Amino acid sequence: MAATIIDGKAVAQEIREEIGARVRALAASGITPGLAVILVGEDPASVSYVTGKEKACAELGIASLGRHLPASTSQDELLALVRAFNADPRVHGILVQMPLPKHLDEKAVIAAIAPEKDVDGLTPINIGRMILEEPCFVPCTPQGVIELLKRTGVPTKGAHAVIVGRSNLVGKPLMSLLIRKSLNATVTLCHTGTADLASYCRSADILIACAGSAGLVRGDWVKPGACVIDVGVNRVEDPTAKKGFRLKGDVEYEAAAQAAGWITPVPGGVGPMTITMLLANTVEAAARAGA
C-alpha cells in the first residue's frame, strides 16, 4: 500500500492563513512586522531563496527591509549593517542568507544578531535556550518538520525517530526538539561515521533524512508504515529538464513510498514550511516587541 503523501504546500498555506490573521491584528494596533534579509553576493540559489522570502512577506503584509550587498563586502561592513538592523525598531527579524562569500566569518555574523531578532534561531543564545527548553526562536526547517508531524497526526510519543544528518541547521536541533516531553520520541542521530546506517533506518518509526546527499536513503531501508521526512534538496543533472537539472531528495522516493505510511515529496514537502516558519517567527518577534 502506497504511503500518504504529506503535502507541505497545503500545510504551509494553512499556517500562512493563521499568520495573515495575526498580521492584521498587529496592524490594527499600529504594528507592521518587519523582516530584514541580508544577501551578500549573487549566488543563484541564494538570490532565488531571498526573492521567495520577499515575495512571501509582501503577500502577508510583512515589511521587507533587507539589503543586497556586493560579494566584495567586508566583514566590518556586514557587521555594521547587522548592528544597524539590531537598533532599527522597524526591523523585528534579521536573517543573513547563507552561504556567505568565503572571506566572511559566518559564525561571527550570526552571533552579532540580537537574539530577540534572530528569527532563524541560529545564534548561540537561541540554540542554548532551545536545548534548555526556554522561550526562544527555533531554527526554521526543524520547526517546519515538527509542524508537519503535528498537523499530519503522525504519532511521536514513544516513537523511535532516526535522523540522518548532524548539521547545526537541521539534524542537531531536530534531535533536541523531538526528545522534548511534549513529543516524547526516542531519537537516534546518524551521520557519515555511522556503521551500518541501513539497520538504524530500518528501525525508525519516524525517519528524517537531512544529510544533503541525493538518494542516500534507499527504499528498502524504510520500515513498513514508517513516516519518512525528506529534508534534502539536491540538484541532479537532467538534460531533459528545462534548467538542465532537477531537484532530488535524500530518499529514494518511489521505492520508499511503497513501504512508508507517510512521506514528504521533494520539492513540495519540507521546503514550503521553512519560509513559513520564518514568517511566523518574524510576526512573533513583532508581537513580543509591541507587548
Description:
By secondary structure, the protein is an alpha/beta fold. The protein has two domains: 30-114, Leucine Dehydrogenase, chain A, domain 1 (Rossmann fold); 139-271, NAD(P)-binding Rossmann-like Domain (Rossmann fold). Helices cover 41% and strands 16% of the residues. The protein has ten helices and twelve strands. The protein has a six-stranded parallel β-sheet with strand order 1-12-9-8-6-7, sandwiched between helices. Strand 2, helix 2 (44-60) and strand 3 (63-64) form a beta-alpha-beta unit. Helix 1 runs parallel beside helix 10, helix 6 (140-152) crosses helix 7 and helix 6 (140-152) packs across helix 10. The radius of gyration is 19 Å and the shape is globular. The mean pLDDT is 95.
Strand/helix succession: EHEHEEHEHHHEHEHEEEEHEH
CATH architecture name of the largest domain: 3-Layer(aba) Sandwich
CATH topology category name of the largest domain: Rossmann fold
CATH superfamily of the largest domain: NAD(P)-binding Rossmann-like Domain
Total number of beta strands: 12
Write the layout of secondary structure elements.
Elements lengths: L3 E2 L2 H21 L5 E7 L3 H17 L2 E2 L2 E3 L5 H13 L5 E4 L9 H7 L11 H8 L8 H13 L7 E5 L6 H8 L7 E5 L6 H6 L3 E4 L17 E4 L3 E4 L7 E4 L4 H7 L2 E2 L7 H20 L1
Parallel strand pairs: 1-12, 2-3, 2-4, 2-5, 6-7, 6-8, 8-9, 9-12
Antiparallel strand pairs: 10-11
Helix pairs in contact: 1-10, 6-7, 6-10
